[in-house]
Amino acid sequence: MATDTHAIIKNLVAFYDFGGKEVLHVGAGGGRLIGYAHLPRKITAVDSDRAAVECLRKKISECELDDKFTTIEGDFYAFRAPADVVFFEFCLHEMADPVRAIGHAATLAPHILIIDHLPESEWSWCACETEKISASWTAIEESPLRRKRCFDAKQRFADFGELSNRLAALGEETAKRIRRYESSSSRGGIEISMPYGIVLI
User: Which end of the chain is more exposed for a tag (fewer CB within 10 A), N or C?
Assistant: First the structure.
């Protein structure tokens, strides 16, 4: 994501103590939040996207974290090994049934940690994900929350071409929605609001 991942990681580790824990990291592919990985004892990273898992493996090697990680390309629901915490990284809204996902996580670990876009996110509206995100937060809010915090962030792009390339795979409706930012390119770049929340169940 074209935003300050260092700030997101800082907020994440301030919110939850990963120290010495065994983490099942769901949606870890791509390795965007790998900066937290020095804290847990062990991380099992699960993602169904082969290219994303390969990207994660490369980052693990570059950061010399091979001893911390086990990477699995596959279905989260097929995973049965216990952990201290199941960590969903900006992916719960992508799951067809967030209630089922939270329920399965509860069979694996005493803690469920979720970081995801908030329904009012302008970035998520651009990506045509508002409905899915609203459904995932409904599932979250119906769970027994221990703690919740909300944060502000922005997606930043040098110009409209960079933004278009970033979202090109999302289809014509997204292309239509982002046209409102086309004139911003000439005024020193584009910023799109991306508020997110972190919760512990």
Answer: N
